Structure formats: C-alpha cells, structure tokens
Amino acid sequence: MRTKKLSELSVGICLVIVVALVLSLAILCGSAAAAKGKVIKIRYASPQPEKPCVWVQATRWFGEEFERRVEARYPNYDIQNQFLFGGAICGPGETLETVQSGIVEVGMITNVFEQSKMALQIYTWHIPFSPQDGGMVMRAAQKVIDQYPIMTDMFVNKYKQKVIGRTHNESYQIITDKPVRTLEDLKGLKIGSAPLPMPRTQALGAVGVSSNLMEAYTAIDTGVYNGMVCAPDMMCGFKLHEVAPYIVKCEFGCMDGNWLTMNLNFWNSLPAGIQKIALETGKDMELWQLDAAAKRTDWAYKKMQAEGLTVYELSKKERARWAKAVDDSRLVAKYCKKTDSIGLPCSDVVRAYIDNLEKEGYKWPVRPTVE
After folding, report:
1. pLDDT of amino acid 11
2. What is the pLDDT of residues 264-294, one digit of tens each?
3. For the chain, which terminal residue's Cβ has fewer other Cβ atoms within 10 angstroms, N or C?
C-alpha cells in the first residue's frame, strides 16, 4: 500500500515537473519573441540582374545596410529582406506599378524604361556629351530636385511612393563589331540601344535599333545590328566585347539614371526613427554606388582589353564634331518643347541643370541648345 502511494506521489511530482518545464519553455519562447518584437518583411525589385548592374547591387547594399542599422538601433525589430532581381517579379517598365501596388515594398526604378511615365525625370538622358564625372552629375541633379520639388512630388502624388535615394549611370560609349574613329565611320551602322539613347546615335548618322542588354550579345553575333550603346561595365557584364571587339570612347556622359522608391503605405507604417534611417541609408547608398561604379568601369576596361578589346578615344576636336551633329538635330530642344507642351517645366529644369553643371566647372564641347 505504501509502495502504491509512493508510486502515485512520484507520478504527481513528474507531472508537476513536466508542466513546469512546458511553462518555462513557453515563457522563454515568449520572451524571445518579445525581445525580437516586430517583424518587418521587405521585398526589393529590379528588372535587371544584379551581377552586371551596379545600381542593382546598390539596391542590395541598401537593403542589407538598412537591416543592419535598424536592428542595431532598435533591437526589438527584425528586418527580413527578399531580393527579387533580374525579372523575378517585374520586367522593364513595370517597376513603378509593382511598387505602387504593394507587390513589393521597394524598387529600383530605371528611368530608361519609364520614359512615358517619367517624362520630366528622364531629362539627363536627353543631354548627351555631359560630364563623365558621376559625382558632378548627381550634385547638379540634386540641386535641380531642390529647385523643382515636382521632380519627387510625382512619385508621391501619382505613384504613391517615397523616394529614398538615387543612383547614376556611368558614361555611355559605343561598342561595335568594326572600328569607329570618326563620325563618318559610324554612319550607316546599325546600333542597338534602349529607347532613350537612340535619338543621339541616329543624329550621328547610325541606324537605331530598339533593343536591350539581355538580347544584345545574340543580336550582334547574328548580325541583327553592329553594336550597342551603353556603359562599359554593362558591356563587360554582358560579355559584348566577345562579339564586338571595338569601343569608341565618345563619352556621352553620365546620367541621373535610377530612383530607389518605397511604397507609400509601407513608408507611412514605419516609425519616424526608422524612416530617418531609411533616408540616411539612401544617401549613403548614393555615395557607395558612385564609388562602386567608378571602380567597376575601370575593372571593365581592363578585363575587356585583356580579352582582346580595342579602345579608341575621340580627340577633343572630333568629340566636338559629334556634339555639334547632335545639337544641330535639336535633340534637347525638341525634348523640352514636347515635354513643356504637357504642362511640365522641362525647359526650366534643363536650363537649371546646364547652369548647375557649369557652376561645377564643366565645359561643354558644344553647349546644348534648349530653344
């Protein structure tokens, strides 16, 4: 009888211990969850692949750095990133709406694919033979944004997005399957490009072919066209020098090319302190990308030349001939007139940008004609 009572007592003690352990585990798990606090899931989108495109690399840099800074200052927050690059969730020309709809929280908007929606914001793409210094271009463009709030208001009012930062595109050159050293050499060649750079190559006498980097290698290799206009790091990243072993450094100039934006509802859901971190990180991303892009351009030239690329740099006199040919076509003036006609202050913005560059010390080969 005593043995039975002892057995029942032992079972009771064991049950108490088990219950205590379960409760302790629940408390510990609850404490861990409470300690970590709020989970913020952020999806990032870009239609371009990450490896060959520095601005896409900058998107990842922002995401990882934003995560690190938030969790360092607010340990109770858990930032969980998902990077959807290379068309994983949106293609060229679809990023604005993808962010607007909330399919993703953050996107790198590529101006060159959004010209119908960002008629004013793409103005630097319409001013060739601008500086090869990305920092100079970004500073001049930032002053334009400060002078004309409409530049960023459009994202808020029309597309429900907050601008977090910007990145630039390195100076565009022309890579071809045969040598180009003069304006006459370019005439009649078929040159592939995105829509925005095409008018400048057409003004120089080339035949413009609408294309993109994803199809350029095969198109050149099969004779669809003779070359491509883009930045050297992209030429290298997409291995265009394997089928087009000549670059003419015409130095079309850097562009204020991409906008990192955040869905406005998502932005408004963030505490003020975290919003501040996002803007701080966005500014630092701009500096990171400037440095990374310059280094990658140097690397691209060295790699391509080591693999057989021939680089020809236009003389100052020849570059001025090219610039005059483009200006004689009134490329800038036509763009300004068309964009002014839909109620946007394009001529004023372009004049301000030109003035800002000149205050930075830039000397034009031929000063662009606005009207």
Report:
1. 42
2. 999 999 999 999 999 999 999 999 999 999 9
3. N
Q: For position 212, what pLDDT does the model report?
A: 87
Instruction: For residue 174, give the nearest of 198, 188, 191 by alpha carbon.
Output: 191
Domains and CATH numbers, the chain: 39-114+148-168+255-297 (3.40.190.170), 173-253+308-359 (3.40.190.170)
Integer Cα distance of 283 and 140 in angstroms: 15
User: Which contacts of 366-370 are long-range, i.e. CB under 8 A and separated by 24 or more positions?
Assistant: 366/129, 366/320, 366/323, 366/324, 366/326, 366/327, 368/127, 368/327, 368/332, 369/327, 369/330, 369/332, 369/333, 370/332, 370/333, 370/336
What are the backbone dihedrals phi and psi of residue 152, each rounded to the nearest 5 degrees, phi first? -105, -20
Contact criterion met (CB below 8 Å) for 134 and 294: yes
Q: Coil, strand, or helix at residue 364? A: coil
With CA atoms as reference, report the closest residue to 254 among 148, 132, 78: 132
pLDDT at res. 26: 44
Token pair, residue 59, equals 């998107």
Task: Give the SS3 label for residue 45.
Answer: strand
DSSP letters spanning 67-132: HHHHHHH-TTEEEEEEEE-TTSS--TT-HHHHHHTTSSSEEEEEGGG-TTT-TTTTGGGG--S--S
